[in-house]
Structures are given as C-alpha cells and as structure tokens.
Amino acid sequence: MADYEASSSSNATTCGLTACSYHVFLSFRGKDTRRTFTDHLYTAFVNAGFHTFRDKEELDRGEDIKPELQKAIQRSRSSVIVLSKDYAASGWCLDELVMILERKSTLVDYVVLPVFYDVDPSDLRNQQTGCVAEALAKHERNPSLKDKVKQWRSALTEVANLAGMVLQNEADGHEAEFIKKIVKVIEDKLSRTPLSVAPYLIGIHSQVEDINLWLQDDLSNVRIFVIQGMRGIGKTTIAKFVYNSNFKRFEGCSFLENIREVSGQPNGLVQIQKRLISDVLKGRKVKIHSISEGINKIEDALSSKRVLLVLDDVDHADQLEAIVSMQDRLYPGSKIIITTSRIGLLKDHQTVKMHNVEALRYKESLELFSWHAFGQDHPIEAYMEHSVRVIHHSGGLPLALKVLGSSLSGKSIDVWKDALNELEAIPDDEIVKKLRISFDSLKNDHDRNLFLHIASFFTGMDKYVIVQILEGCGFYAIVGIQNLIDRCLVTIDGYNKVQMHHMIRDMGRGIVRLESEEPRKRSRLWNHKDSLEVLTKKNGTKRIEGLILNMRRCTAYTPRSSNEVVLETNAFARMDKLRFLQLTHVKFRGHYKGFLTELRWLCWNEYPFESLPNDFPLERLVVLEMCYSSLRKVWKGTKSLPALKILNLSHSHGLIETPDFSLVPNLERLILKNCTSLVHVHESIGNLKGLVYLNVEDCKNIRRLPMEMMNIKSLKVLQADGIPIRKLRPKKNPEICWASCLPCSLVELSLTGCNLSDDDFPWNFGNLSSLRRLNLSCNPLSGLPGWIRNVGRLDELSLSQCTRLKSLEGLPNVGELIVHGCSSLETVTFQPIPSLPIIILDESNCKLVELEYYFKLEPLERVDEEMIKVLGLSKYLTSMQTIMMDTIHVFNIGRTKMQPIQGLYEYGIFNTFLPGNEVPGPFNHRSTLSKIYFTVPVNPNRKIRGLNIFSVYEKSSIHSLMMIAKLHLDRTRASYNPIATKVRNNTKRLEWIYGPSFFGVPNDGEQVIWLSHWKFGNQLEGGDLVKVSVLTTSELRVKECGVEIVYDEREEKMMNTQQNTTDIAPSFSGFDIGGNLSPSDMATMGQMRTYFLCCRPEELRESETHRSKWFNQLNSGFDETTVCFGEEAICGESRSGIIAHDPRLPEGRGCTMQIKAFFRSLPLVVSLSLRDSYGLAWRSCFESRQNFRYFSLSSQDLPSPGNLFNPVWGDLPIQTLRRTADWCSSPIYTVEPASSDPLLLEICKDVQNIA
C-alpha cells in the first residue's frame, strides 16, 4: 500500500530510502561555528523549507559517534560539511566525515557539499602544514587511533577534491551572501533528483513528444494535460519520464503516485494534500485536519510559484476537487499532468489537453518482451516462433509483455509451449489483477453485466447492433457502453465497432470462468469445446444466458468416423434464460416448438436449410443474422416479427427473393450484400417506416426496384455498389428512370462499380437535398456529373479509381474529396467555397497539373510575363522552350518524366527548375553553403513584396534518386519531399518550410537550379533579421544558394495576374506567403510559429533536426558525417558526426558508459550549454581523445565587457570570443576563427546566432 507519510519529498524514492527523514545533515565542529556561522546556515535551511538535522549537544573529542547520528546520516538526502580550522581536531567529526563519504559511495544520488570556512582545500589535501597537519599529528600520538588516522587522512583528501564552496572565493567573504549561495546549491541539487522509471523505455519518445512541447511552452494557457488509457498501457511510466525531463524548469514540483489507492485509505485525501504541500514547500510539515482546510492550504502553497504537479491514477472527481480545485488560480506557468483510466473525468474542462496512450507496435512489443525474456533486444532464434505468439497474445500491452517475459525468462522451450497453451485458455493472474481494477470500479451490476456480455460475445461488432440486442434485453446500452469507454474497457473504432483489448476480454471471461469449474453452470459459454460438450450431453442449466458454437473449430473434438455432427434441438431444453446464440456450420434435428423463446440475438452462419421452419419462434428476436446460408426463402408466407430491427442475409447466394415485410414493422436495417441470385425486392419494403439502412451491394441479378421505396422517408443509407442500376426499372412503371425510386431522405449513397457514365445521371438527382456522402468510385466517368454542382454541401465525395476521369470543374463545397487511382485526372477546380477540402491522392495521380488553391503546373512559356521579368528569365525564355529535363511529381515519386521546363504556383510561391548552374537574374546575397543570414534594409520609400530565392543542387548518392525516393514512399505510404526551403524571420518569430510538389531531377554529374519567388506582405519589413536555408535529404547536395529582395514597383502587375491562382479565402487573408494556409501544418516551436507548406511536413521536421549544413551531412572537413541535436544524440540515433549540445541534455550521473562511448566516436563536439556543469559533466568523456576539438559557452565563461578569453581546455582553434552586447542584454558573441576552414566559419556563424 502506498504511504504518503513515509517521505517528505516526491523525489525521495531515488534515495533508496522511501522513508528519508531529512533533506540536509549538517556536519560541523561545534566549538568553531555552532553559535555563529552554522547557526545562521541552519536557520537559512529551515526558512527555505529544508528539514535539516544538526546535533544539539557538545561532545568530547574522543567520544564515539552516536547511534542516532549514524541513523540521521543514513536517513538524509544530503550532507553539508562545514570544514573549519579545528574540524580535523575532532575525532568525532572525522568519524562523521568517513560515514558521510561511505554513504555517498553506496548511493549515487546522495549529495555531499564541502563548505571551506576559514580553511583552504589545499590544507586538507596536502596535510603537511597548518592546523590540519597539527591536528592529525596529535591524533597519531595516540596508538589506539593509528588505523583510524589513515582512514581520516584519506577522507580529508577525498572531501578536499570534491566540488565545494570556499568562503574567501564567494561573495567577497561576506557570510550572509555565502549562506544564500549554499542554500541555493543544495536547493538545486535536491530538486534535480529524478524519479525511478521502469527500464527498457521502448517506444516512449513518440508518446511524450506532445507533452514535452506543452510543458516547455510558457505561453500556453492550458493548465492541465490528461494522459489516459487502459490499465497496464504505460501511463505512469510516461508521466514519470516527462516529469524527470522537465521538473527542473519549475520552482516547485510534486509527483503524487497511486492516488486512487491512497485515497481509499482512512484519511487518504488528507494524506495526499499533506504530501503535495510538503513537496512544493520542500519538506515543510503542515497540519491538516480536514479536506476543506487542505484545499485552502494548497491554494496558498501553489499561488506564489510556478509548479509542476503530476496526479497519478486519478479515478474520481472528488480526488481532483481535494487536490487542485483551484487550478484557475495557479501561478502563471504552472502545469498539471493527470493520468487516469477514466476518460470522461475532465470533459467539462475546456482548456484541457488529452493524450491517449497507444499500444506498442509489433516491433516495439517484440523488443520490450525480448529485454525481459532474454536480456537483449531480440529473441533467441529457437524461441522466435513462441515469442511471436506472446506478442500477438499481449496486444502491445507493456504490462503483459513485462510480466510474461519475466515469467518465461530462462525456461526451456517445452515449458514455453505448455505455458503459452495454458495462457491462451487461462489468463495470467498478475495481469488480470491489474486490469480488473477498472471492472471493479464500475458503479453497478448493470454495467458489469453489460461488460461481461460484450467480453463474451460482442467484441468487434457494430455498436448499433450491440445496442439493439442489449436494449432488447432491458439494458440501458448506450449509457452503459459509454461508462465502459470512460473506464478504458472498450473503444469505438473508426467503423463504429466496439473494440476491446483482448487482454481485457480475457480478464472478463476469466471472471465468468470463476463462477464454476463446470462450464454448464456458468452464465456464458464462448469456448467451442465447452459449448459442444454441454449440447452433446444435454446438461445445460438455467444459468446460461449466451452460447457460441462454431463446428469448424471443433474438428479435434468430434469423432473421425462421422462426416458431421447433428445435434438435437432439445439440447436447449433447460436453457430458459438463453438470449444470445451464435452458431456456425451447425445442424439440428427435432422440432422447434417452444425452442428458445427468450432469444434476442440469433446469428446462424452457414444455415443448412432452404428456409426457416414454420414452428421456429421468432417473436422476440431483435437481430437475425443468417450469412452464408443455404436459404432460398427466409420464411414462407408472412411471419410476425414485431421486435426485429436488423435482418442480415449477406452472402446467401441461393436467396431468390426477400421475405414479405408486412408483419416486420420495426425493421431498421436490411442487409442483402452479395445475394447474387436475388431478383426481386418485395414491395412491402415500402411499409417499413423505420428503415434507415439498405444494403444491396453486389446483388448482380436484381432486376426491379419497387416504386414503394420512395415512401421510405426514414431511409438514410443506400449501398448499391456493383449492381446494374441503370438497367433497373420500377415494376409498376418500367418507363420511369431508376433514380425515381430513391427517397429524398438519403444522406449517404454508394454506387461504386455500377458502370455509370456521364449520361446516366438524370437531372432530378439534384432533388437529393439531404445527401452528404456520395461514392461514385470505379465508374467510367470523364467529368463531374452536372447535378452534383447543385448540391448544397457534400461532406465526402469519392471518385477513386475512375480511370477515365480527366477534369473536375466547379466542384461544390466538399469536405473531403477522394480521387486516388484517377490516373487520367489533370485539373480540379472549385466553386467559391468558404474552406478548402481534404483531398486524398496517391502516386497514380501523375497527370494532375492543377489543383485549385493548392498548385498549378504549366509550361514556362505560358507563365505570366511579369513573373518572368521578376525572376530575370526574359532573355532566356526563347532558348528555354527547347530544353527538356527530368522531373518528378510527389504523387508519382517513383517515376521521372522528361518534359519542357515548367512553372509551379503553390501556396503563393512561384517555382521553376532549370538545368545547369548559371543562375539568371541579380542576387545580392549568395553563399556556397546551404543557408544565408541577412538583415532587410530599412527603406521607407519602397515597399517590400517578397523574395527571389535560388539554390543549385546535385545528386550526392550513387543511387538513383527515384529509387531511393520510391523506397521511402513504400515505407511511409505518403508523399515525399527530398528538397525544401526554409525562410525564418527571427525578428517576427515566424518561419515557413516549403517542399514543392514538383521538382527537377539532376542527372549524374549535372546540376539543377531551383528558382522561386515568395510573395510576402507585412510579414517582411526593413530591419528584420532573416535566415534562408535549403533542406535536403541525403540523396541531394546543395552547391550554392542566394536571395534577392523584391520591391513593390517591380511586381505590382504580376501580382494582379496571379490572383486567380494564389488568392486565398477571406479567413486566411492575413497571409501573403503561403497562399491558402488551411491545408498546411502549423506548429509552435518554443515561441517560433512554424508553417509547413508541403505534402509531408513530418519529413521536413526530421530534415530540420538532422539536416542544415552543420546539423546534418556536413561535407566540409568530414565525409558524410551525420549530425544530431539535443536528446536525440543521447539516445544514440547516430553514431558519427557532430553533436550540438543544448541545455536539455542530462547532467552528471547521466554520463553513462554507453553515452561516453558514443561521444568518443564523434570527431567534433560543439557545446552551446549556458550552464557550467555540462562542461564538467562531459569532460571525462573526451580527455583521452586525440585531435579532439571542443568549445563551450557556459555561465562561468562569460567575460566582462570588452575582455577576451580562450577556452580553458580543448583544442578548437578559435582565437577570440568577444562579447559585443551590453552585459545586461541577451548574450551575443562575435567568433573569430583562427583559420579559413569552411567548417569553422559555418560553426562560428551559427554560434553567433544561437548563443
């Protein structure tokens, strides 16, 4: 059981003592400093909230150390040793020192801070002269202390070599300021103690990315971030990881673990309140007598400082009310993270961010399991097949992978086989115990029974179907399912199916199994062997509410001598409460009178007879499913089914006609999919006033549609894919068009593969005023049917695989347009629309040259004359018309196309790609590197309209660019940009990253010029500091780039001619660059607003992290080196290159052997840390390196204004680092390299801009 009274700090768990009693242990020589310096230091620690131990009694010099002092050292998180002149004269003090250092050697997080008070560290280190030497010599004259003196000398030397604080060197010797600094050092060191996190954090980085960005965004007004998911999915691990990565950014922090468990204890919520206040106030004890009193004290504690709170495993609103009821009054910048398995817990809070923790993918699951089972990242070869079984069984649940991996570790293959067979029948107890918490938390038996029904029978089924079945049994199914969703017991997927992780499903089935050792006495039977046994023995009981039997899964249990098993209908005689029955490939003999009269759901797949027996009881059925049946008629004559809501006869290939629906008044869904012999739909269908869904997909022989269908005012969805619909005629009026039978109430209509051409759509289709989703895929259409333009709005229009489709002109307001597989499509234009649709394309759309509001591609000779002038192409235009070059479209990345030079309009940017390296037009800013820094000139008489940007690039790989890109496309299944331009306005904190959808391909040994014009309005002004860089993947290399500022008078006419192509909707009119930004991706990185204008922005994010001349593939001085930045380098993403070292990197103890080995493999390290501790922390990694170059900007390196200095160690040939800004302003440095090495020049430029 968790106990919050056991520790005074949330970080104490890493002490190895969850019951640490003190923050600080003070060691001092009483005669020297007890009533002076040490007394003031003790008071300062107490006032700062540190629980501090000091001995109150004077001890004689020779007395042994007290047991209570030994215990105090063991139960402290740090020791401050005040080393005064006579400290070494006390044997008791020296014994205390030895014990403190022993504690430090056994506990990695234990903090020891020597304070040298009127004594120099060299005196303790040398021990040859002075008061220390005299004291030790006096001790040596006592023969009984001979061995101890050796130990004391060693301890004094060790403590002298620790990083400590010397009074004479700090605050000019002023004790008051010195004490403040000591308290601050201890405060920093103790607050940096991270929580213990589970090993093998596989797949965690993708889970924590958004949370880290939120924690580091000081401008966000969102105070609460909820991490939610099923139990065992890793919520607490994620919370601990982000807590450890970020808590140093806050003035106070607290990680409250297991709130659900602790709050259930006597006075549990008060315990939690005390713990929170103690953590935030750094150990200060408070008395709380009631929850309401605690709420007030928490408000006082949290209202004056930026805090990070993590509330782990919250499952009730009362817990939040007791802890953070005043979140609106938190100090600005404070953040709260909540982990919960209750999804609906904070739905009323509008400013809450949510993160749903996803299960691990297959490779991640295999790696995590392997670490626990084999101690390595992959299975032993002989165990691979069995490991895969475990992975599939675990469903990506980290809890299951850890438990099963540990339990199977070191076992033989025979044991593995038996264990896995048992596991598939009976779930592991440890996993079930964890998962069952959510089941037990359900508020009533109604929800628990509903859960057990779904776990036993309905996982993976359509939610609508489940609701109808369960409501037919008296359940409140909609609210009940929502309660299960809120507790992460079920989810609803994108197809409206109720999904349940099969570890949770097995937990539910395990609960049913506990009802009795005998299957016949359980309430639910889903195991086919158990069901067959009960039916064969005819020993079922009244307890059985549902049963599943698939005879195709029972071949191992049936006699081989017989071809099939025929069961007796009287086997169900005792099952009076049976309401759910699912049969597959089952035959019965006997009469059906009185057969299962309580049945609500009958699913009889592969029904063996041509019709249902006349005496078959159907009166209470709510759902009847008879797929893949041998039915020719469902029933003879008319049958009364007053409760039936769903009839599914799909894939019944012998069915000739539908039944008479006259006595089926409540039918809502009729599914006749792939009933290939169906000819006639009974006219009584028109009497179904509640029919909502009709599916006649692939009923290829249907000939008539009843006119009565027009009367079904409730029909919302018609699936008529693959039927000869244009040949259909109403039975009573064959001269009337097929469309006349469609009710105007239709919301969704699917006519995929109906062989419909342009002329097959009558104009009265426009009467379908309610239509929102239309699927015309796989039809021989060449253009947009005219009637569609008259529809007010379509949420979705699918024309995929219409291979004859050439143009879509004047599209109406469409939410999503699906045109993948339209290999002939060239242009898409829209009517005036308030917002742009989502458009789904693929590599087959290679002929697409215009997608209005997105891009337009046309030969250069057709481009507007003013644009040609702006880019300086006028005198080259005639000669360019005969030039052909290889190009690639991102929608057909695997294939080049030889064509004339093209102009591309996209996002308000004009582009063209030219062969060669002779750049037309003047460019004032040029560089042989891949980026340029410049300041926009201040000229009040000229208005800036934009930038001309060029880059010259070539292939850097011996491989085919198209082949590499195609392989990349195969991996990502998305469009791909191998080159992009980034424009960053540092002054306005705006940047745009643009990857063109069309680009030129250089041949071997040749180069290509990318020339572009970017239209800026007020986003670019005089005085702005701008950086333009070209980002590429490893297949391309930039040789040169350049920028020219374009002013208003040069392009006024040209901009008017572009209006039709680049204008944007009113809601986005604030942006000139980027055209319509609605399809772009915008992210806030720190305080920089970044717009990704490309088909695949995540590729460009990756490029920005790993590219840019010295952030990736730095070619000057290093051959194909790879660069990492920040934490990604620590994770070992790359094995050679340059590390740009930022303040987020781990310190001190994080410098493990693995990281050291990684750093030693790098040819250069540039440290941009602004804290001194980083240089010290990493120094040991590099001291043995030859030809190693290092330079650091740290807080203690900052020179006084005007002074020069050199790095104190390392071999980076930088002569001077001069501060050019005022001391109080943000640090800006001028770096002067000792040589003209291009690498150093590039580094120096970036240091100047980053530092």
If you had to describe this structure to a student in words, what would you say it looks like?
With 1251 residues, this protein is of the alpha/beta class. The protein folds into 7 domains: 4-191, Toll/interleukin-1 receptor homology (TIR) domain (Rossmann fold, 3-Layer(aba) Sandwich); 204-356, Rossmann fold (3-Layer(aba) Sandwich), CATH 3.40.50.300; 362-425; 445-513, Arc Repressor Mutant, subunit A (Orthogonal Bundle), CATH 1.10.10; 520-823, Leucine-rich repeat, LRR (right-handed beta-alpha superhelix), CATH 3.80.10.10; 853-1099, no CATH class; 1109-1250, no CATH class. The strands form 11 sheets. A 14-stranded parallel β-sheet has the order 13-14-16-18-19-20-21-22-24-26-27-28-30-32. Strands 29-31-33-34-37-38-45-41-47-39 form a 10-stranded mixed β-sheet, with no helix packed on it. The longest helix is centred in the N-terminal third of the chain and has 17 residues, at 175-191. It is flat, with a radius of gyration of 38 Å.
Give a topology summary.
Blueprint: E1 24-27, H1 30-33, H2 37-47, E2 52-53, H3 67-74, E3 78-83, H4 91-106, E4 111-116, H5 121-126, H6 130-140, H7 146-161, E5 165-166, H8 175-191, H9 204-215, E6 224-228, H10 235-246, E7 252-256, H11 259-263, H12 268-280, H13 291-302, E8 307-311, H14 317-324, E9 335-340, E10 352-356, H15 362-374, H16 384-394, H17 398-408, H18 413-425, H19 429-440, H20 445-458, H21 463-471, H22 477-486, E11 491-492, E12 498-499, H23 502-513, E13 524-525, H24 528-537, E14 546-550, E15 566-568, E16 580-584, E17 587-589, E18 601-605, E19 623-625, E20 646-648, E21 669-671, E22 693-695, E23 704-705, E24 717-719, E25 729-730, E26 748-750, E27 773-775, E28 793-798, E29 807-811, E30 813-818, E31 827-830, E32 838-840, E33 850-851, E34 855-859, H25 865-870, H26 877-880, E35 884-889, E36 897-900, E37 902-906, E38 909-915, E39 925-927, E40 931-935, E41 944-955, H27 961-972, E42 979-985, E43 990-994, E44 998-1000, E45 1007-1015, E46 1025-1032, E47 1036-1047, H28 1052-1057, H29 1059-1062, E48 1081-1085, E49 1088-1093, H30 1097-1106, E50 1122-1125, ...
Parallel strand pairs: 1-2, 1-3, 3-4, 4-5, 6-9, 6-10, 7-8, 8-9, 13-14, 14-16, 15-17, 16-18, 18-19, 19-20, 20-21, 21-22, 22-24, 23-25, 24-26, 26-27, 27-28, 28-30, 29-31, 30-32, 31-33, 43-49, 50-51, 51-52, 52-53
Antiparallel strand pairs: 11-12, 33-34, 34-37, 35-36, 35-44, 37-38, 38-45, 39-47, 40-46, 41-45, 41-47, 42-43, 42-46, 48-49, 54-55
Helix pairs in contact: 2-8, 3-4, 4-7, 9-10, 12-13, 13-14, 15-16, 15-17, 16-18, 19-23, 20-22, 20-23, 32-33
